[in-house]
Specification:
Blueprint: E1 4-9, H1 13-24, E2 29-32, E3 44-47, E4 50-53, E5 59-60, H2 67-74, E6 83-85, E7 92-96, E8 102-105, H3 109-119, H4 124-139, H5 162-169, H6 173-179, H7 195-207, E9 209-212, H8 217-229, E10 233-235, E11 240-244, E12 251-254, E13 259-260, E14 262-267, H9 271-277, H10 285-293, E15 299-307, E16 318-322, E17 341-346, E18 358-365, H11 388-408, H12 412-415, E19 416-422, H13 424-431, H14 448-451, E20 462-464, H15 473-485, H16 491-499
Parallel strand pairs: 1-2, 1-14, 2-10, 7-16, 14-20
Antiparallel strand pairs: 3-4, 5-9, 6-9, 7-8, 11-12, 12-13, 15-18, 15-19, 16-17, 17-18
Helix pairs in contact: 1-8, 1-15, 3-4, 4-7, 5-6, 9-10
Bound molecules: flavin-adenine dinucleotide.
């Protein structure tokens, strides 16, 4: 007799969606989360009575009939979400260098083209080519379109490089840079990032862009409620330290020694971490080595600012800035020119329509930059000071970042009540990744197939889910969770249930 039909390691969005879907199909689900709060990157925290998001600043595809809307409705959480649609004419605004002029990325394909044509008259053909290619590429991903299909459909478009493709549609360098302008969304690397990553993400935001009012943790809370209502259990402060069994997994071992038995196990962790936990000899060394050696995306430095009341207007768009004319240069910063890029997100709060109460400013930071403090570990359930030198490092970097931001938002320093910083170490400790990578496994158009991770492993009862499978983000992780559930359920029937009207 097992404790659970399915035991899920980690309560990130991937683990929670799997828990809800499988619970809806009669499986007894147990989720084990090492942190005090569920949700992984969906977690929020409060400072000075202000909610701060850690890993969700906007979401695409939530409009009527769009993919995430359809899945969230199926999961029964959509109607309870507090959402605000972003500015129809500009969900993202892109700026470069000291240029006053900024460029708008708009919602709806016609509007998207119209807004850019105002800045780039004569580029209609290029924008048509761009939009058509995005749609063509997205159509090749069956699950993204909530239909069945097979992986060969996308084979021919996997080896397109984003920066090269953009250079083929127009000779206008500025337009190329503007179209790549929000590549912090996927930690874009010139001559490396596959176009399908750019297309799947961009399409969802062009379809429609939304902020979560009062934070993204509402998604995790609603999914948690759903799982409980279906008889599932979520155990917080419950770190899994081993998936034991020489062949199939026999039990998951909790840090405090308890053994959890289940018929099936799903890991929401980075595959490299899953390999470390799994002793099964069914996993070949070549597979383990492949997963452990995949490169990850760069880490992030996040400056979360609590604002003085009614000082900073609520911006219903995100602002992406590049310190040079090259939108791809951000990841290549050196110690001397950091930061070369940032994204500024205004929090949507139920307290005011006119003003925001907090800002998140996100830029890149490599793990090496903080590796000096790698032997420290700090989360709210296991707090530890990393030391005065770490605090001084964070403050110095925060001020450096503000110096750049201030050029575009001159009054910002006067609006600050307090600020809080997260580094790759924060993400490492909260998410459980090895290096605090922002979005998990790095995708490269030269070996796209190698970076798709199948949910099924050679261990007969061990499955994988989460951002490392196919695509990160709310959209990518939700769809990956359906793929994982499709290993235990009939995927065709599941998709029919999701897409049929209630
Ligand atoms: C700074 C930042 C900004 C982002 N902004 C956006 C955005 O605006 N829009 C968007 O769509 N996406 C955004 N993303 C991406 C998105 O948040 C993630 O891709 C997604 O939430 C990841 O979900 P996941 O299920 O893969 O797992 P994770 O969120 O990584 O969760 C994994 C969970 O497993 C737990 N865990 C780890 N080890 C163990 C263990 N041994 N035992 C038990 N539990 C364990 C962790 O504590 C964690 O809760 C952002 C990400 C970052 C980092």
């Amino acid at each position: 007799m097992y404790d659970y039909d399915v035991a899920i390691v980690g309560s990130g969005l991937g683990g929670l969606v799997c828990g809800a879907v499988l619970g809806m199909h009669g499986y007894k689900v147990g989720i084990f989360e090492k942190n005090r709060q569920i949700g992984g990157c969906l977690q929020t925290y409060a400072r000075d009575k202000t909610i701060i998001d850690t890993g969700v600043h906007y979401i695409g595809g939530l409009g009527d009939g769009q993919n995430i809307n359809t899945i969230f409705r199926y999961l029964g959480i959509f109607d309870s979400l507090k959402l605000k649609q972003m500015d129809a004419d500009a969900f993202d605004v892109i700026g470069f260098d000291d240029e006053q002029k900024t460029y708008k990325l708009a919602q709806g394909y016609d509007n998207f083209k119209r807004q850019l044509l105002a800045d780039f008259p004569g580029e209609e053909a290029a924008l048509d080519k761009y939009c058509d290619k995005i749609k063509e590429v997205c159509a090749k991903f069956p699950l993204y379109n909530l239909r069945t299909g097979d992986y060969t459909e996308k084979a021919e478009i996997l080896n397109i490089d984003t920066s090269t493709f953009l250079s083929t549609i127009t000779a206008n360098k500025k337009l190329q840079q503007v179209l790549a302008g929000n590549n912090l969304l996927y930690a874009g690397v010139a001559d490396t990032t596959p176009f399908y990553i750019h297309a799947l993400i961009t399409n969802s935001f062009i379809e429609s862009s939304w902020k979560c009012v009062d934070g993204g943790s509402q998604i995790a809370k609603l999914l948690g409620k759903k799982i409980h209502a279906l008889g599932g259990e979520i155990h917080r402060n419950s770190k899994i330290v081993q998936l034991a069994g020489k062949g199939a997994i026999e039990y998951a071992l909790l840090e405090h020694g308890k053994k959890i038995t289940a018929k099936h196990f799903i890991s929401n962790l980075h595959p490299a971490q899953t390999m470390e936990l799994t002793e099964s000899e069914a996993l070949r060394n070549v597979y383990r080595t492949r997963l452990q050696n995949l490169d990850n995306t760069i880490g992030t430095f996040l400056l979360n600012i609590v604002l003085k009341k009614d000082t900073f207007p609520y911006l219903n768009y995100n602002y992406y800035h590049h310190e040079t004319q090259d939108a791809w240069e951000g990841v290549n910063y050196t110690n001397d020119n950091w930061p070369l890029t940032y994204a500024l997100f205004a929090n949507a709060t139920s307290k005011s329509e006119q003003y925001t109460d907090s800002l998140t400013i996100m830029t890149y930071m490599r793990y090496e930059d903080v590796s000096k403090w790698k032997d420290t570990f700090n989360t709210d359930s296991l707090p530890q000071e990393r030391g005065d030198d770490y605090e001084a490092f964070k403050n110095e970097k925060a001020e450096q970042l503000l110096d750049i931001v201030e050029k575009r938002f001159p009054n910002i320093r006067n609006c600050i009540q307090s600020y809080y910083v997260a580094t790759p170490l924060s993400y490492r400790d909260y998410q459980g990744s090895a290096d605090g990578s922002m979005y998990g496994i790095l995708k490269d158009y030269r070996n796209s197939f190698n970076t798709f991770i199948a949910p099924r492993t050679r261990v007969p009862n061990l499955f994988l889910t989460g951002q490392n499978l196919n695509l990160h983000g709310i959209l990518g992780v939700t769809i990956s969770a359906l793929i994982t559930c499709g290993e235990l359920l009939n995927i065709g029937e599941l998709l029919r249930e999701i897409t049929s009207e209630p």
